[in-house]
């Protein structure tokens, strides 16, 4: 399978730091080549990544030295030899109080138990490995092994992922669960993985995304001219521009200061991200737009996942699913509590009175999505 390239109409790649590249090269050079799928040209992605890493390490070591530990492996790769051990690096952009940290720690604890200690996980929060865009890019070169992010994070590699960011797609979370707990959700995830090269493991429901602003928003007219931060997924930028705002892609760890300084007028996210990253302190008005529902996933580079011994690979998938189910249950259980905590901290919730106007304004965005995505959109809206 060839390395997917970012679509030329989307944002340029987010480059990794030199130290990350050097560490990635060291890890790649020391990794045992596991069984891989062969391309039409007779080469394999896993081998290509290894050789690329060897080339990078020569350059990296000439100019700098870097710390870090590579996975420790012994025995024949792919045999499931009990002597083999693996250290996985897991990163996310949330704080240590963010639910993603809980998911990361649970995954680390359970995968070590499930594999009798053969797999250990290093957890890195707070974007310490880079922005989520940099971490997603880093999965391809082994500078990180797992990233907790949503499907929108791979939209730069396949526009099929825009099904997640299609605006006003779901009426409520029951409809969302029907999709992602059924065959259609499986079909979408498989198609996105095949097209992008990224495996999306586990479904961790986040709740609906809401708009938070410095001033109240109750109708579409209130959004006009506001500078709103969104993730760098093109469909989300298009959505907020279509609503009359000025959409700006900004790293999430810069959002608080940008709101505080007045660079931004607002941002959009589920309640957990708003609460646990203190966004309500600088943008206390929360408009209940419900413009998007999404899951987090444990995202891996699929070639890397397929390269592990079968028992390790199955354990990774099973633990991701297990943690995902509990994460979803926690979200549903805690949503009312998140709202209460936000209100107690001074946030104000506002009902959107003209939802149909928002839906109508963003319909051209939906109509501009790929044919396959529009087919999925139609199927979802009929459920």
TrEMBL record:
Recorded GO CC terms: outer membrane-bounded periplasmic space
Q: Which Gene3D superfamilies does its entry note? A: Bacterial extracellular solute-binding protein, family 7 (3.40.190.170)
Q: Which Pfam families match?
A: DctP
Q: Which UniProt keywords apply?
A: Signal, Transport
Q: Which InterPro entries match?
A: DctP_fam (IPR018389), TRAP_DctP (IPR004682), TRAP_DctP_sf (IPR038404)
Q: From its record, what is one biological process in GO terms? A: transmembrane transport
Q: Which family does it belong to?
A: Belongs to the bacterial solute-binding protein 7 family.
| NCBIfam families referenced in this protein's UniProt entry, alphabetically | dctP (TIGR00787), TRAP_S1 (NF037995)
The protein depicted here goes by the name: TRAP transporter substrate-binding protein
The organism is: Agrococcus sediminis
